[in-house]
């Protein structure tokens, strides 16, 4: 799993490349735990190259949801592959998290 970052004044984009499993979820958790993440208005998760997500990977996002909500930071997923999106749907996480098709839609929110 490779995580790359891009940022503007108000938005942080994290691009996930590979498989988000138990071992790589530690990397993602480290990124999302950094105090400066809460200084952004939006954190966008680019899932275009995310091939797989395990329960540990989902757990990282779930564990940070309240923290983002409390800080009034929007967490938005975009470019999600169908098989990854299906996992979110099956678990009902698509109702808890904002998932949009494109980066343009994510930045417009």
From TrEMBL:
Listed PROSITE patterns: STAS
Residues of the STAS domain: 1-109
CDD domains in the cross-refs: STAS_anti-anti-sigma_factors
Chain segments annotated as transmembrane: none
Protein name per the record: Anti-sigma factor antagonist
GO MF term set: anti-sigma factor antagonist activity
Family note: Belongs to the anti-sigma-factor antagonist family.
Phylogenetic lineage: Bacteria, Pseudomonadati, Bacteroidota, Cytophagia, Cytophagales
Gene3D superfamilies, A to Z: STAS domain
Organism expressing this protein natively: Hymenobacter daecheongensis DSM 21074
InterPro entries attached to this UniProt entry: Anti-sigma_ant (IPR003658), STAS_dom (IPR002645), STAS_dom_sf (IPR036513)
A Pfam family reported for this protein in Swiss-Prot or TrEMBL: STAS
């Amino acid at each position: 799993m490779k995580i790359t970052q891009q940022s503007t004044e108000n938005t942080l984009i994290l691009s996930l490349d590979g498989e988000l499993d138990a071992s790589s979820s530690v990397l993602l958790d480290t990124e999302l735990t950094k105090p400066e993440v809460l200084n952004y208005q939006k954190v966008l998760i680019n899932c275009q190259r995310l091939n797989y997500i395990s329960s540990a990977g989902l757990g990282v996002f779930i564990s940070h949801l309240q923290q983002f909500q409390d800080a009034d930071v929007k967490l938005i997923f975009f470019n999600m592959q169908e098989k990854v999106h299906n996992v979110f749907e099956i678990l009902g996480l698509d109702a808890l998290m904002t998932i949009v098709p494109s980066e343009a839609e994510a930045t417009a929110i």
